[in-house]
Design goal:
The structure is a single chain. By secondary structure, the chain is mainly α. The chain has 24 helices and no strands. It is globular.
């Protein structure tokens, strides 16, 4: 089985390096070691204290339903900080209780439940809630932002664009980040970065550390897309200055160490640190990918077993369907299972990504004509995601359409940083 990178960065095949020695190194332990050594998690501690405070208030006054949303919001933060899926479900339970008590009349509480469902990848249910909030009419602008987010997840791009045009102005942080997302979706990366930089200035001006943290980490990804690895690294460090336990930024550093520098030892050191505090299946897939690069089959197999073990021990719903489908597809004995998961994903969200899973499953089952039909109708020229385009190129090759491969291959060669070094040979062999 092949593994798949979970850090959604892009670009730049870099210099050949060893596991401990590299040319053009960017990472420096002195820049971030103090973050790894920190035992304090202020965000987690604050959220837990907030839960205790508002739970006490609610216990004393059970008629104050608004307290439930405050408790739920802090459970959502605990999920982000720890990766413990039970916190996300606890937040859902509280929001359901609150909405039922309010008879689904309070748009803020409805939107909060919808965002919880987005995190769970329950997008159709999120859309129903967003539409319910829209019909009520209060706080219409905030609901429109939610509708844009859900439509993008569902692949309703025409609706997303209409919604975006109806709500935006250049002075609004939430608008800027959504216009940036739209431009990134359309392949206009430079414009997307420029808009995110403007959003960062807005966050700084408001002195909102939460918005600053989110923008720094997302700009880190986008600079990676553009091949500006140093700037990606610098922005991850800025995010960590705000929250030393931010797993997203730490994974970004680990990916730079691995994909850009081929420094597997340092990448694993960072990953092992994060996984002590953040219990997520993602880290086992990343460790398996590194083990594959090191040609350590035993370590790779152990990490994949750990990945599936944590999925068995916790109910993640459909949140890991994409990765499971890709993993199963690359093993002929389980490719049929990949097909079933892909079809479930299409039912949940009929996006180019979901149809790519279906095409890739058929390709690995040997039905290359069916794979080609799906790619032509639903995937080709509809996404700028390198992994999807690698699949498109491989399916073209299987159908002897060599003339279609050359322009895709050129793009893929400039996307090794995002795809990871394990893909270099496969791209070369297209």
């Amino acid at each position: 089985m092949k593994t798949y990178n979970l850090i959604f960065l892009f670009f730049v095949p870099f210099l050949l390096t060893g596991c401990a020695k590299t040319t053009g190194r960017i990472t420096n332990r002195e820049d971030y070691n103090h973050f790894l050594l920190s035992e304090v998690d202020k965000v987690k501690d604050f959220s837990q204290n907030e839960i205790n405070f508002w739970q006490g208030k609610f216990d004393a006054a059970p008629n104050q339903i608004s307290y439930l949303s405050k408790i739920a919001a802090n459970y959502a933060v605990l999920f982000e900080q720890t990766g413990d899926i039970n916190y996300l479900y606890k937040a859902e339970d509280l929001l359901l209780e609150s909405n039922e008590a309010l008879r689904y009349t309070e748009v803020g509480t409805i939107r909060a439940l919808a965002r919880n469902y987005i995190t769970q990848h329950r997008f159709k249910e999120a859309l129903e809630l967003a539409q319910k909030a829209y019909k009520i009419g209060d706080g219409l602008k905030e609901t429109q932002k939610l509708l844009f987010d859900v439509h993008m997840e569902l692949g309703n791009y025409d609706e997303a664009e209409k919604t975006l045009k109806s709500l935006c102005n250049d002075n609004d942080f939430d608008c800027l980040i959504r216009v940036a997302k739209w431009n990134d979706h359309k392949g206009k990366l430079d414009t997307a970065i420029s808009l995110m930089e403007k959003a960062l200035e807005k966050a700084k001006a408001s002195e909102n550390t939460g918005l600053m943290l989110w923008t720094y980490s997302n700009l880190g990804d986008m600079y990676g897309h553009a091949g500006k690895i140093q700037q990606a690294y610098d922005h991850y460090l800025m995010a960590l200055k705000i929250n030393p336990n931010n797993s997203y930024a730490l994974k970004g550093l680990a990916w730079i160490a691995f994909s850009h520098e081929k420094n597997t030892k340092e990448a694993l050191r960072i990953i092992n640190h994060i996984s002590k505090k953040h219990n997520s299946p993602d880290f086992y897939l990343l460790k398996a990918e590194i083990a594959e690069y090191e040609m350590d089959e035993r370590a790779k197999e152990a990490s994949m077993k750990d990945y599936f073990k944590i999925l068995e021990q916790n109910n993640y719903g459909v949140m890991y369907n994409k990765y499971n489908s890709l993993i199963y597809a690359d093993d002929k004995t389980s490719a049929q299972k990949a097909l079933e998961i892909a079809q479930e994903e299409i039912n949940n969200r009929p996006t180019p990504d979901s149809y790519d899973l279906l095409a890739w499953a058929y390709y690995n089952l040997g039905d290359t004509k069916k794979a080609y039909e799906i790619v032509q109708k639903y995937v080709a020229d509809k996404s700028f995601e390198p992994q999807l385009n690698y699949h498109v190129a491989a399916i073209y090759k299987a159908n002897n359409l060599k003339n279609k491969i050359k322009p895709i291959k050129k793009e893929l060669e400039s996307s090794i940083f995002e795809l990871g070094p394990n893909m270099a040979d496969e791209i070369e062999n297209l």
